[in-house]
Give the backbone structure.
Amino acid sequence: MGLLENKVAIVTGAGSGIGEASAHRFAAEGAAVVAVDIRAGKAAEVAEAITEAGGHAISLGANVSEADDVAAMVDETVKRLGGLDVLFSNAGTIRLGTAVELSIEDWDLVMAVNVRSVFLGAKFAVPAMRERGGGSIINTASISGLHGDGGAVVYAASKAAVINLTRAMSTDHAAEGIRVNAICPGTIETPPVKRMMQDEAALQINLAAHSLGRLGQPEEIAAAAVWLASDESSFVTGEHLVVDGGLHSRSPLGRLADPRPKNMR
Ligand SMILES: NC(=O)c1ccc[n+]([C@@H]2O[C@H](COP(=O)([O-])OP(=O)(O)OC[C@H]3O[C@@H](n4cnc5c(N)ncnc54)[C@H](O)[C@@H]3O)[C@@H](O)[C@H]2O)c1
């Protein structure tokens, strides 16, 4: 029996990368999955692939930064699948630049897609989860929410906001049996990252920064999301689960013994 048997799960950003892998894994664990993406065609392709593999999935096109779209996303889910148990608010975007370089539009876009979406997701999903007596909300943050990632100031700010929004909402809804957690991925080989890693210098820096010496795979984040979605994590709420191959815990100095300083025993 799968970990998500009899559960209905929405996955946003399901048309690509982490969301796509998670939609597949949730379905493989027995969930009825709603694959949501602003690119409705991509979400439909993923739902079709899940169905062909024997799983249960439908798709919806929605912009997760728009209140009407998110309200409709939850309404449709309840109408078509009978309720809602899991929301994986995963859709996100990035704009690179310093505070000087980024435009105000960049700031507003990234905060809307990465943070307002998480707020809206909970706003409309919590009432539906109450009807089921509980649920699990998982939000995709990032290691960038824990570090001062220069050159990505709005992205870093948005992901830090996701982490603390997660904590605050977990406090509000714990008594209703609704758990709220975040995941902080390291560098994961999704289509946008693959494009960035075509730059050999960027690739080498990223490989060296992860203690495991490689980039992560979308399926490795999906595995963490399944655990947080399932009853296996029933005593976990308000947490941000770091899934980063050792990136966050690694000292910028690396191993102090490489090379060992001459006058050290
Ligand atoms: N890949 C990484 O290294 C990495 C690391 C840390 C965090 N993340 C986060 O993981 C999440 C998924 O990223 P990914 O790497 O899989 O990217 P991706 O580009 O492969 O997938 C993101 C999906 O979100 C969709 N999307 C974008 N804006 C949307 C909107 N407004 N409404 C609905 N859907 C929208 C896109 O169409 C796309 O299909 C993001 O929140 C990202 O910030 C990724």
User: Anything to note?
Assistant: The mean pLDDT is 97.
